[in-house]
Amino acid sequence: MRLVFDRVDGVGVNYLHTPNGDGAAYDWSVANVSEETVRMRGVSLVFRVEDVRGELRMFRHGFQSWSVSDIATFGVDVDPSTIAHNEFFQAAHHADQRSVTGVDELRSEWVTVLHDDDGPVLVGFLGGGSHDGTLRLRRAADGVGIEVFAEAYLGDAEMPPNTHRGLHPLIIEPGADETNLLDGWAKVTGATAQARVDAPYQVGWCSWYHYFDDITEDALRANLALAGDHPFEVFQLDDGFQSAIGDWLITNAKFPSGLASVGKDIAAAGYRPGIWIAPFLVAPDSVVATEHPEWLAKFEAPSGKTYPLRAWMNPIWGGGHDGYMYGLDTTNPEVLEHLAQVANALVGMGFTYLKLDFTFAPSMDGIYADPTKTPAERVRLGYAAIRAGAGNDAFLLGCGAPLSHIVGLVDGNRIGPDVAPYWELDPSKEVIPGYLRTQPGTRYADDATRLRAFMHRRLWLNDPDCLMLRTEKTALASADAERWARTVGLSGGMAIVSDDLALLDASAKRLLEETVALGRESDASTREQRCPLVESMF
Ligand code: 9PG
Which residues line ligand 1 (CB under 6 A)? Predict the structure, then answer.
């Protein structure tokens, strides 16, 4: 297979094509040469895919932590948006929330590898902080040919007259082995964005996958008392302590002592206190949303009236609107100041490890104070404010995070969907048609950990999600718990245990010790060579 440059799709696109070893590199920009402000959804470099031999397959890289990454076959598989037709949900899993237009269209975010009988070709953007890069493999208009649209996705960002915007360079690189191609891409992309890749190997405990939102201060303290039996460095409280989504510094009745006391006692026990927040979401009835309605992103109803933008839905969180949560407008300087203050206050209480969740929210289509910002810039602005408030020494962990937007700001990143106290779901449990594998399931996390292993210590530390070692109060068979632990260990990624520690027996303790030993070894070797979990993908 060969990719041959054909044309640009969109006005005002300038490009410069330079040879790049075996492949090609495109430096490009887009200009608004008109006399009026224009809104740019996306501009593309279009390539013809020629001389395809045999089946054409595509590594589809998912948009955010929980989005599916997989291998799809052109002409056989479909984009899940053609099944779901649900923009609210699609906004969480694709750069462009709109459904794809053709049946024969597969898309991958940030990077892809195409593969036929002649081998792999990588197509990737060497950055993602200023806009998304969506690779769309499409049937050409003649109904026969195949094309790749390498789209700089700008999400309707406004460009004033006579301005231009530099775009992330695109590379096209054939090779012998997709794993080397991806490793090389990740190295260059990480170095360009000054990725934070030097944090030590992480071992810890997290409250979520045993207690979920039923976590109490008593349960947390009971686990803290048992933590000394294990090699933990981090001790992280997850969702369930807050009075409302958005009011992160106010605890609910299950945490009577308040966060400062909890943070102080975790630190006194010798651990790094960690805490979960969903910084860009606010419950409609939270203090923050009630006092500052002007901080909310908006959308325009067909009537022309504007309303707060609904960014996610989770009935367990309450909030007064059937579980719908609003999104903060991260282009509003007051919001950024607020985010920095929250992060600063948490760090001040000892929580120097912040798990930042549901952070795709500012990438949704909506009305924002500064309409010139792209979705990627909106997400990055939010993360940068948190980094500024938390300081350089805090460990920031992205979660539900558009991966390409935050290189250089986070120390760790969740690179898969949630594990769960079971292996996989019955397909009848699919909530949104076409998106089963974004739902919690240990098997889906295992798959993501393999397919994104090449990112570890190139772009951040990979967080594959938690180990679960208990054999009671779980539907995860012990063979599957061991299988998952081995994947986590081989990946060299973060090893965070999520069990009621009172349930861990001697064999669970041994499994953790083996996993951590394997993890340290894999992690150390990944600094020098390819991650040991990276295996052939096609
Ligand atoms: C806390 C949890 C944990 C977990 C996070 C995130 O698609 N979903 O409906 C969906 C719900 C929850 C979720 C991920 C996806 O979990 O990944 O580790 O912190 O939030 O609420």
Answer: 66, 208, 238-239, 276, 357, 399-400, 418, 438
Helix (H, G, I), strand (E, B) or coil at 40: strand
pLDDT at 19 over 90: no
Helix/strand number for the chain, H first, E second: 12, 26
Classify 320 in phi/psi space as left (phi over 0), alpha (psi -120 to 50) or beta: left
Closest CA to 137 of 125, 145, 149: 149
Give yes or no for a contact between 89 and 97, defined as CB atoms under 8 angstroms apart. no
Give the closest residue to 326 by CA, choosing from 304, 302, 303, 294: 294
**Pairing verdict, β 310-313 and 111-116:** unpaired
Tens-place pLDDT, residues 122-171: 999 999 999 999 999 999 999 999 999 999 999 999 999 999 999 999 99
Lowest mean pLDDT across 14-28, 181-195, 266-280: 14-28
Q: Is residue 458 pLDDT above 90, yes or no? A: yes
Atom of ligand 1 nearest to the CA of 238: 19
**Contact present, 62 and 50 (Cβ < 8 Å):** no
Q: Residue 439: which pLDDT band, with cuts at 50, 70 and 90?
A: very high
Report the separation in Å between the CA atom of 276 and the middle of ligand 1, taken as the mean of its atom positions.
11
Single-letter residue type at 127: G
What residues act catalytically?
A: 357, 418
For ligand 1, the distance from its centroid to the CA atom of residue 215, given in whole angstroms, is 15
Q: How far is the CA of 470 from the centre of ligand 1 (A)?
A: 20
Residue count of the chain, please give it: 538
Residue 384 CB: number of other CB atoms within 10 A? 19
Pairing status of strand 105-109 against strand 38-50: unpaired
Q: What angle do CA 502, 493, 127 make, to 5 degrees?
A: 140
